[in-house]
Amino acid sequence: MVHGKWKWMEEELQSLKEKSQLRTLHDTSLLENGWVLRGGKKMLNLASNDYLGLSESLNENKRYQFMKEEEPISSSLRFGSTASRLIVGNDPIYREFEKQFASYKGTEDCLVFSSGYMANLGVISALIGRKDLVLSDRLNHASIVDGIILSRAEHKRYKHRDIEHLEYLLKNADSNQRKLIVTDSIFSMDGSIAPLEKLVELKNRYGAMLMVDEAHSGGIYGAQGQGLVHSLGLSNEVDIQMGTFSKAYGCYGAYIAGDSILIQYLMNKARSFIFTTALPPINIAVILQNWLRVQNESWRQKSLLEKSAWFKKELQFRGFNTGESESQIIPIIVGDNKETLNFSNHLQEKGVAALAVRPPTVPEGTARIRFTIMSIHQEVDLKEALVHIGEIGQQLKITL
Ligand SMILES: Cc1ncc(COP(=O)(O)O)c(C=O)c1O
């Protein structure tokens, strides 16, 4: 029992515990073929964002295709970047990479941020301010929500993927306000896909900017993993494309892709870009290496999408509610926090790392197990996991 100055914290933590919302850390080591050692137990990892299995990549310590002959290799293999990009942290590897990545994304330019969270915070708060309006899908990621709060703009949430609701809000908005529509392309906790073409139509009709967060589609969708925006031919229509290297690219860091002037503006205005030390140059070198694998090893995307569609069908066949999933993110919606935790604990006992996602990450009353598939999962392992999921789900009366 803690007394004195931290009593309020203890009470808050106790209240989280009573609502089955307390979070704790577990030692986790990644093993081969999508297995993991979690809390000392070997489990099939159905909770990772390493969709293509690229997180195993190590820097190969070689010259990269764009490096000039005379450039010292060691410069781009350092860990410490020593300062922010705008001071002396801008190793040549950054701009070379950004130019190439922009061309892959079909945009004029691109800017690397330290993480997706920081990109969303910095970009949204740079683009809109107190007098402006932001229209955001109700299920957008927390980093988008935090960027909006930081911007102090008027914040209106539209119903999930509901174009009519969004249009109603746009119609009734002050025509003098600068407007930003923002959406995930694949929703992180639901696996549903945003109606990007319709959003483009609306943003054009109402003179709004459109920002799309490709965190969960980058590396996977499109001919070479350029993401959903590119695969729909919308690279020039979506004003701000954001994505992260921490998921399918199996690395760390994030980017914004768009017009040159946007990138120049963000270099000057995005505080999470300006006031932080640049990512280690070696991190960019590993991103580059993984990006080449994303482009050249298309069996990874194919295998991921095939396994995901099959896994979802198998869950539905067993009577589970998989919500609106259309991707490699497949939830089983349970509803109650405690029941969801209980389901997850039983699964983990059987060697299935499938974790409970509870409010505030998802709306109240929609707690769920979030399954994510990896291209390197073995079919035999997924089949065995499905047997456990089905049996435990029935035992706990989670099936429909
Ligand atoms: C939709 C979405 N945007 C942004 C982020 C943040 O990205 P990062 O993990 O690189 O900070 C995430 C990751 O959790 C996400 O799911």
From TrEMBL:
<comment type="pathway">
    <text>Cofactor biosynthesis; biotin biosynthesis.</text>
</comment>
<keyword id="KW-0093">Biotin biosynthesis</keyword>
<dbReference type="InterPro" id="IPR004839">
    <property type="entry name" value="Aminotransferase_I/II_large"/>
</dbReference>
<comment type="similarity">
    <text>Belongs to the class-II pyridoxal-phosphate-dependent aminotransferase family. BioF subfamily.</text>
</comment>
<feature type="domain" description="Aminotransferase class I/classII large">
    <location>
        <begin position="41"/>
        <end position="389"/>
    </location>
</feature>
<keyword id="KW-0808">Transferase</keyword>
<dbReference type="GO" id="GO:0008710">
    <property type="term" value="F:8-amino-7-oxononanoate synthase activity"/>
</dbReference>
<dbReference type="InterPro" id="IPR015422">
    <property type="entry name" value="PyrdxlP-dep_Trfase_small"/>
</dbReference>
<dbReference type="InterPro" id="IPR050087">
    <property type="entry name" value="AON_synthase_class-II"/>
</dbReference>
<protein>
    <recommendedName>
        <fullName>8-amino-7-ketopelargonate synthase</fullName>
        <ecNumber>2.3.1.47</ecNumber>
    </recommendedName>
</protein>
<dbReference type="InterPro" id="IPR015421">
    <property type="entry name" value="PyrdxlP-dep_Trfase_major"/>
</dbReference>
<comment type="function">
    <text>Catalyzes the decarboxylative condensation of pimeloyl-[acyl-carrier protein] and L-alanine to produce 8-amino-7-oxononanoate (AON), [acyl-carrier protein], and carbon dioxide.</text>
</comment>
<keyword id="KW-0012">Acyltransferase</keyword>
<dbReference type="InterPro" id="IPR015424">
    <property type="entry name" value="PyrdxlP-dep_Trfase"/>
</dbReference>
<dbReference type="InterPro" id="IPR001917">
    <property type="entry name" value="Aminotrans_II_pyridoxalP_BS"/>
</dbReference>
<dbReference type="Pfam" id="PF00155">
    <property type="entry name" value="Aminotran_1_2"/>
</dbReference>
<comment type="subunit">
    <text>Homodimer.</text>
</comment>
<dbReference type="InterPro" id="IPR004723">
    <property type="entry name" value="AONS_Archaea/Proteobacteria"/>
</dbReference>
<keyword id="KW-0663">Pyridoxal phosphate</keyword>
